[in-house]
Amino acid sequence: MPRYENRESGHECPGRGSRGKAVRVFGWVAGSERLGSLSWLTIHAPGFPAAGPGQFVLLQPEPPACFLPRAFSVAGQRGEEISFLISPVGPGTKQLTNLREHDPVWITGPLGNGFDMDTLLAPPMRRAVLVGGGVGAAPFPLLLDCLATSASGPDLDVLVLLGFRNSSQAEGGQPVRAAAARLAAGGASCRIEIATEDGSIGKARLVTDLLAAEQRQGDRLAVCGPQAMCEAVWQTAREASGLSCWFSLEANMACGVGSCHGCASLRADGSLALVCRDGPVFTGESLYGVGEQE
Amino acid sequence: MTFPMQSQHSSPDLIVHLGPLTLAHPVINASGTMEILELADVFGEDVLKSPPVGAYVPKTITLKPRQGNLPPRILETPAGMINAIGLSGGGLEAFVGGSLPRLLTLSCPLILSIGGFSPREYVELAAGLRQALQAGAGDGWTQRVGLELNVSCPNVHSGCLLIGADPGEIEGVVSAVRREWPGLLITKLTPNVTDIASIAAAAAGAGADAISAVNTFKGMVIDRRSLRPFLGNVTGGLSGPAIKPLALRAIFEIFARVEVPVIGMGGIRSAEDALDFLACGATVVAVGSAGFTDPWLTGRIASGLATSLSERGLTLRDVVGIAHRREA
Ligand SMILES: Cc1cc2nc3c(=O)[nH]c(=O)nc-3n(C[C@H](O)[C@H](O)[C@H](O)COP(=O)(O)OP(=O)(O)OC[C@H]3O[C@@H](n4cnc5c(N)ncnc54)[C@H](O)[C@@H]3O)c2cc1C
Ligand SMILES: Cc1cc2nc3c(=O)[nH]c(=O)nc-3n(C[C@H](O)[C@H](O)[C@H](O)COP(=O)(O)O)c2cc1C
Ligand code: FES
Q1: Binning pLDDT at 50, 70 and 90, where does residue B156 land?
Q2: Is B4 within 8 Å of B297 (Cβ atoms)?
Q3: Closest by alpha carbon to B14, among B323, B325, B320?
Q4: Between these two residues, B44 and A218, which has the higher pLDDT value?
Q5: Given a cut of 80, is residue B1 above it in pLDDT?
Q6: Above pLDDT 70, what percent of chain A?
Q7: Pocket-testing residue among A41, A42, A72, A111, ligand 1, by greatest number of atoms within 8 A of Cβ
Q8: Are the C-beta atoms of B257 and B234 separated by less than 8 Å?
Q9: Which domains does chain A possess?
């Protein structure tokens, strides 16, 4: 059975106010599975605190192929086993996806703010929409597991919209499916829709096409994916006024903890935010501004 | 006011004196690469109680708040990284009212780095910090707090680098600050000059108590997709192991030219690297970008240095500048 198919979700989900301090620990690879063009990497990290959904870590194998560690969203966690969905795009990510069982890895975290589950599910709404593009699906298995342990029930309605380049990348959606099934087993309604750009699964379409068809007044969206996708989601959300969005951003990072000021990202008001310290999750308004509504 | 020495990494062999400051060991952080208060927020307060550094150097403080350069600001490069942060920060007032009181409770000495856009700004910064320390740091603060003039940032479009590249300008700034600052005064040099030793000599001649070198090497990266400059600032500063041999050469030349102690940095990530800098003439070494991987690296290097020295049967004093001595 692949690791992401674990029956119980079993993740204590710390809220933004109740998180432990971050640590830097020496762990080792507990498992690595290819999922099409993506990989599911599980690290055994002794003493690693529980991560909130949308939080990230820095990973650096020992010995490292790169000078700096690399940032990854926590995709799943069961006790001391922490999993990541990784897209091999360069030397750092390629080294990680080629690791074998027992290979040593330094892991620092959990870092960043993560998604605020209380506002995502603030009453009276009990519906959340997760929008992911490619490896941007990474934070969602953990987010769904958190919902399963802390918010499940027949009135909870979760919609997951995932966009992939092709069917090979879409295999990376399997851990999301497994987590959605765990959530549904607790009585909640949880549906996944998948779009592939090349039409290798269903019609050729984008995740924003799914969003345009599925969105409802007042929806709250947790979004993670490439910049162009995030902008398109914001555009779609603005056209259907009344949607609230939280975006998880990427930036080149060195320290991950607010020391280097390298991960700055421009906000709508012209100010710069540090993605590692002030994010990686930001509201749509803060990133893209309120603008004039058409 | 008493000044408790940290115990964790100290061993009698590693204690160094830098002017009036006493460091439990000679491994400090490079300015702009370790924000200890941020580390405390993320990892917990222990880092403040037993800092891994022999002295703590915060990011360069500017007179006014600065947002810094547009992103992207960093990228990994072969054996290192390039950055164009552009001195972002809250400015003097925010530092004095916010971070300074907390930093003064650290159990190690503090070296405050300042960066100006004109000689007058350096003087204002030094005077502002002196006043704040006189008011809030108790008697004997000059034994715990030093000042570093960053005349070497390659990522701002005017100001400090121009000052840092001209011996006459350096003399003007250092001697003007000297009149305002009673404590340890360090000048941090840019390597982006033809003859770094003559700049060091100008700084020492104007009253600098120590020289710190090197800041980053000016460089650039091309965005492979657009074939345009990758960094928002177009150019940036190169750091990390890639620059270590260049930095060693700079330290070697400075040591041969000036009498004042040298703080050496550029690509240090291990005790062996630190030893190389000591051999070239550094009394103290600083860890910059390598600390992004491991915020406690300075402490580990200090421990490694102690081991390495005792294995060789050498003391710190033996090793500083040893590369200049011909005999075996
Ligand atoms: C908070 C956060 C969470 C993240 N979560 C995940 C996750 O869960 N899974 C995941 O797979 N990734 C994630 N990432 C992204 C991941 O950190 C990067 O993909 C990784 O750092 C890339 O490292 P690399 O060495 O493989 O590639 P690098 O060589 O570092 O390249 C990084 C990117 O920069 C580009 N680049 C490099 N050099 C140049 C150049 N000269 N010109 C133009 N472009 C250049 C590359 O094309 C690439 O897209 C996350 C990032 C952040 C900040
Ligand atoms: C991200 C980053 C920010 C820096 N900020 C400063 C700064 O504010 N002031 C300063 O004097 N030097 C700054 N530096 C330069 C370092 O202090 C150091 O001189 C240089 O990086 C060389 O050391 P290294 O190779 O160990 O990094 C910065 C370097 C980096 C990489
Ligand atoms: S990565 Fe260093 S400040 Fe964000």
Answers
A1: low
A2: no
A3: B320
A4: B44
A5: no
A6: 97
A7: A72
A8: no
A9: 3-111 (2.40.30.10), 117-288 (3.40.50.80)
Q: How far is B242 from chain A (nearest CA, A)?
A: 10
With beta carbons less than 8 A apart as the criterion, state whether A207 and A131 touch.
Answer: yes
pLDDT at B328: 61
Structure tokens at B58: 């915060």
Q: What is the pTM of this model?
A: 0.95
pLDDT digits (tens, 9 = 90+) for B72-94: 999 999 999 999 999 999 999 99
pLDDT category at B3 given cuts 50, 70, 90 is: very low
Which of B32, B71, B290 lies closest to A264 in CB terms?
A: B71
Q: Would B328 be classed as within a structural domain?
A: no
CATH number of the domain bearing residue B59? 3.20.20.70
**A265: chain B residues, CB-CB within 8 Å:** 71
Which element (helix H / strand E) includes B262? strand B262-265
* Among candidates B35, B71, B289 on the partner chain, residue whose Cβ is nearest the Cβ of A254: B289
The answer to whether residue B108 is catalytic is no
B134-162 as b/e, with b when 16 or more CB fall inside 10 Å? eeebeeebbbbbbbbbbbbbbbbeebbbe
In this structure, is residue B82 part of a structural domain? Answer: yes
Classify residue B1: in a domain, yes or no. no
